[in-house]
Protein backbone atom coordinates (compact mmCIF):
# COMPACT_ATOMS: atom_id res chain seq x y z
CA UNK A 1 0.00 0.00 0.00
CA UNK A 2 2.83 2.38 0.88
CA UNK A 3 4.53 1.77 -2.46
CA UNK A 4 1.32 2.54 -4.36
CA UNK A 5 0.80 5.78 -2.41
CA UNK A 6 4.36 6.89 -3.17
CA UNK A 7 3.92 6.19 -6.89
CA UNK A 8 0.58 7.96 -6.86
CA UNK A 9 2.06 11.07 -5.18
CA UNK A 10 5.02 10.99 -7.53
CA UNK A 11 2.62 11.03 -10.46
CA UNK A 12 0.71 13.94 -8.93
CA UNK A 13 3.99 15.81 -8.34
CA UNK A 14 5.03 15.23 -11.95
CA UNK A 15 1.74 16.55 -13.26
CA UNK A 16 1.92 19.60 -10.98
CA UNK A 17 5.49 20.28 -12.13
CA UNK A 18 4.31 20.31 -15.73
CA UNK A 19 1.70 22.98 -15.02
CA UNK A 20 3.30 24.95 -12.17
CA UNK A 21 7.01 24.34 -12.74
CA UNK A 22 9.66 22.95 -10.43
CA UNK A 23 9.95 24.84 -7.12
CA UNK A 24 13.68 24.13 -6.85
CA UNK A 25 14.36 25.53 -10.32
CA UNK A 26 12.28 28.63 -9.54
CA UNK A 27 14.26 29.18 -6.33
CA UNK A 28 17.59 28.80 -8.13
CA UNK A 29 16.45 31.21 -10.82
CA UNK A 30 15.45 33.76 -8.17
CA UNK A 31 18.69 33.46 -6.15
CA UNK A 32 21.14 33.26 -9.07
CA UNK A 33 21.39 37.03 -9.73
CA UNK A 34 22.19 37.65 -6.06
CA UNK A 35 24.87 34.94 -6.04
CA UNK A 36 26.37 36.37 -9.24
CA UNK A 37 26.54 39.82 -7.67
CA UNK A 38 28.25 38.43 -4.57
CA UNK A 39 30.78 36.56 -6.68
CA UNK A 40 31.56 39.72 -8.67
CA UNK A 41 32.19 41.67 -5.46
CA UNK A 42 34.28 38.90 -3.89
CA UNK A 43 37.62 40.18 -5.24
CA UNK A 44 36.95 43.69 -3.99
CA UNK A 45 35.92 42.46 -0.56
CA UNK A 46 38.94 40.14 -0.24
CA UNK A 47 41.32 43.09 -0.46
CA UNK A 48 39.69 45.10 2.35
CA UNK A 49 41.49 44.92 5.70
CA UNK A 50 39.69 44.00 8.91
CA UNK A 51 40.05 47.55 10.25
CA UNK A 52 38.49 48.94 7.08
CA UNK A 53 35.66 46.42 7.34
CA UNK A 54 35.03 47.51 10.93
CA UNK A 55 34.93 51.13 9.79
CA UNK A 56 32.53 50.33 6.95
CA UNK A 57 30.33 48.34 9.34
CA UNK A 58 30.22 51.26 11.79
CA UNK A 59 29.25 53.54 8.92
CA UNK A 60 26.44 51.18 7.86
CA UNK A 61 25.16 50.98 11.42
CA UNK A 62 25.13 54.77 11.65
CA UNK A 63 23.23 55.09 8.37
CA UNK A 64 20.68 52.48 9.46
CA UNK A 65 20.22 54.26 12.78
CA UNK A 66 19.53 57.54 10.96
CA UNK A 67 17.07 55.85 8.61
CA UNK A 68 15.20 54.32 11.57
CA UNK A 69 14.61 57.64 13.34
CA UNK A 70 11.51 58.73 11.39
CA UNK A 71 9.97 55.27 11.84
CA UNK A 72 10.75 55.30 15.54
CA UNK A 73 9.03 58.67 15.87
CA UNK A 74 5.99 57.39 13.97
CA UNK A 75 5.85 54.30 16.16
CA UNK A 76 5.97 56.40 19.33
CA UNK A 77 3.22 58.65 17.98
CA UNK A 78 1.04 55.64 17.14
CA UNK A 79 1.56 54.19 20.63
CA UNK A 80 0.47 57.47 22.21
CA UNK A 81 -2.55 57.65 19.91
CA UNK A 82 -3.52 54.08 20.78
CA UNK A 83 -3.27 54.80 24.52
CA UNK A 84 -5.38 57.93 24.06
CA UNK A 85 -8.05 56.08 22.09
CA UNK A 86 -8.13 53.30 24.67
CA UNK A 87 -8.55 55.85 27.45
CA UNK A 88 -11.34 57.60 25.54
CA UNK A 89 -13.12 54.29 25.02
CA UNK A 90 -12.92 53.55 28.75
CA UNK A 91 -14.21 57.04 29.53
CA UNK A 92 -17.18 56.54 27.18
CA UNK A 93 -18.00 53.23 28.87
CA UNK A 94 -17.89 54.88 32.32
CA UNK A 95 -20.03 57.79 31.07
CA UNK A 96 -22.66 55.39 29.65
CA UNK A 97 -22.78 53.47 32.93
CA UNK A 98 -23.22 56.68 34.91
CA UNK A 99 -25.98 57.93 32.57
CA UNK A 100 -27.81 54.62 32.94
CA UNK A 101 -27.50 54.75 36.72
CA UNK A 102 -25.24 51.71 36.88
CA UNK A 103 -22.55 51.36 39.46
CA UNK A 104 -18.97 51.56 38.20
CA UNK A 105 -17.81 48.59 40.25
Task: Give an overview in words.
- The protein has 105 residues and is mainly α.
- It is 89% helix and 0% strand.
- The chain contains 3 helices and no strands.
- It has helices spanning 2-20, 23-46, 50-99.
- The longest helix has 50 residues, at 50-99.
- The mean pLDDT is 83.
Q: Strand percentage, roughly?
A: under 5%
Question: Number of helical segments?
Answer: 3
Low-confidence parts lasting 5 or more residues at pLDDT below 50? none
Order of helices and strands: HHH
**Helix content percent band:** over 70%
Q: So what's the overall shape?
A: flat
> How many DSSP-defined strands?
0
Mean pLDDT: 83
Give a short account of the largest sheet: none
Taking the alpha carbons of the first and last residues, their distance comes to 66 Å
State the secondary-structure class: mainly alpha
What is the CA-atom radius of gyration, in angstroms? 30 Å
What is the structure about, briefly put?
This protein has 105 residues and is mainly α. It has helices at 2-20, 23-46, 50-99.
What key phrases describe this protein's structure?
mainly alpha
Amino acid sequence: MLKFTYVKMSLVDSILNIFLGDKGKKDIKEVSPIVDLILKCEDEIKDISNDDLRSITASFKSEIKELKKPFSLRLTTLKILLRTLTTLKKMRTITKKLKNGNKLI
